[in-house]
Amino acid sequence: MIIGVLALQGAVAEHIRSIELAGGQGVAVKKVEQLAEIDGLIIPGGESTTIGKLMRKYGFIDAIREYAGQGNPVFGTCAGLIVLADRLEGAEEPHLRLMDMTVARNAFGRQRESFETDLNVKGIDTPLRAVFIRAPLIKEVGDSVEVLSEYQGEIVTARQGNLLASSYHPELTDDYRLHELFIRMAQERGQTHVGR
Ligand code: GLN
């Protein structure tokens, strides 16, 4: 499976490394035309306002909405999760408005800006190592969203059909099982969809 990583800003090389460890082929996506060549797209962590601004500038908002609308898998991590959300807490404008959830940015406060923990994630048999950096939280989800993990009672991993989102950075450890899960989503899509 060829998995693209949106390469406008943020942790791109780290995701490509995890994709390859998980058995996929990783490519940096810098142009909308590249979406036609990939089996799944990861939107990395970084700074969501910057990523959103660059996505608008380079035509990625409509292109990714269309890509996801066709059933292609899209995975947002940290800032990427913020970018996927339909609703953001506060006065902020949402970006892709793809996933039926409300997200709060920088939700852990200054005391706990970054930390690592082991998380139970549905579909992964033993706890996953997760790195949180100025992480967002999913405050509320619609009926079609499946919660895959919680941390201290707050939602930090969720899936809605072909969309996957994590509050944390799964690409900063050697534990690449969430990337494996995403590659499986891309494989399932490949099997059910004729004539990509
Ligand atoms: N705090 C960042 C934001 O709001 C996200 C941080 C991250 O991606 N590690 O965009």
Q: Describe it for me?
A:
- The protein has helices at 12-21, 48-57, 60-69, 79-84, 177-192; strands at residues 2-6, 25-29, 40-43, 74-77, 85-88, 99-104, 114-119, 128-133, 137-141, 146-151, 154-160, 163-166.
- With 196 residues, it is an alpha/beta fold.
- The chain has one domain (2-195): Rossmann fold (3-Layer(aba) Sandwich), CATH 3.40.50.880.
- The chain has a 7-stranded mixed beta sheet. The protein has a 3-stranded mixed beta sheet with strand order 5-6-9.
- β7 (114-119) and β8 form a beta hairpin.
- The structure holds glutamine.
- Glutamine binds at residues 45-48, 78-79, 82, 105-106, 133-134.
- In the presence of PdxS, forms a dodecamer of heterodimers. Only shows activity in the heterodimer.
- Its EC number is 4.3.3.6, 3.5.1.2.
Would you kindly provide a brief summary of this structure?
By secondary structure, the protein is α/β, with parallel strands linked by helices. It is built from five helices and twelve strands. Belongs to the glutaminase PdxT/SNO family.
